[in-house]
Amino acid sequence: MKILVLGATGRVGSHFVASALRSNHQVTALVRSPEKVHISDDHFVLLQGNALAKEDIHHAIQGADLVVSALGTDGTTTLSQSTKLIVEAMAQEHIRRIITIGTAGILESRTDPGLFRFQSSESKRKSTRAAEEHLEMYNILKASELEWTIVCPTYLYDGESLGKYRVERNYLPDGGTSISVIDTAEFAYQQLISDEYVQSRVGIAY
Q: How far apart are CA 163 and CA 184, in angstroms?
């Protein structure tokens, strides 16, 4: 399988790339800073470019079977802007499947029906900027004709894989407070061969 990965130098993205390469998938990574990537693998192609540059996205996506976006928000509108470009390029190349990493903030609230978690008392974050940017990404994907899945982890920490976690469509598993970066990346990787959560947000937590 030929996979374009955006956000490959990030925490979840780098672990996703490692999992894909272990299974001999062909991975192309579009990154701004190639010096951050230290991978030597015949199945890996590193492209320097910007996820906000239309021509870079269109070049990188050539020949891909699906797209994985682990881009962060960086306190800007990078996520929503790049998502628009990705959706456009995928439509032109007739690529249907995209897997993205979101946030638990854009899942449905249990305590306040009709609200997203970041709008409700469930959220402990003072700033909603990142969640609002992820929500914009969700709205763009929802309005597209793509086969999308948004993996929505709660608090992400850099720790060992427990290999066992809970997932729930559209909601954060009840009582879930954290999930490791590695297990989040592993669940996202499993979506390469699963259509169980197509056109769904998926909450993930221990």
A: 10
Tokens read off for 66: 């699906």
Q: Encoding tokens for residue 32?
A: 């701004």
CA–CA separation, 186 and 189 (whole Å): 5
Given a contact cutoff of 8 angstroms between Cβ atoms, the answer to whether 77 and 132 are in contact is: no
**Nearest to 67, CA basis, from 23, 140, 13:** 13
CB atoms within 10 A of CB 57: 24
Q: Which domain holds residue 166?
A: 2-205
Contact between 117 and 135 under an 8 Å Cβ cutoff? The reply is: no
Listed residue (102, 109, 106, 63) closest to 83, CA to CA: 102
What is the CA angle 130-50-140, rounded to 5? 45
- At 103, which CATH number? 3.40.50.720
pLDDT in tens, 128-163: 999 999 999 999 999 999 999 999 999 999 999 998
Residue 24 pLDDT grade (very low, low, confident, very high; cuts 50, 70, 90): very high
> What is the model's pTM?
0.96
**Hey, what long-range contacts does 24-32 have (CB within 8 A, 24 or more apart)?**
25/1, 25/192, 26/1, 26/2, 27/3, 28/2, 28/3, 28/4, 28/60, 28/64, 29/4, 29/5, 30/4, 30/5, 30/6, 30/56, 30/57, 30/60
Task: Please state whether beta strands 66-69 and 2-6 pair in parallel, antiparallel, or not at all (unpaired).
Answer: parallel
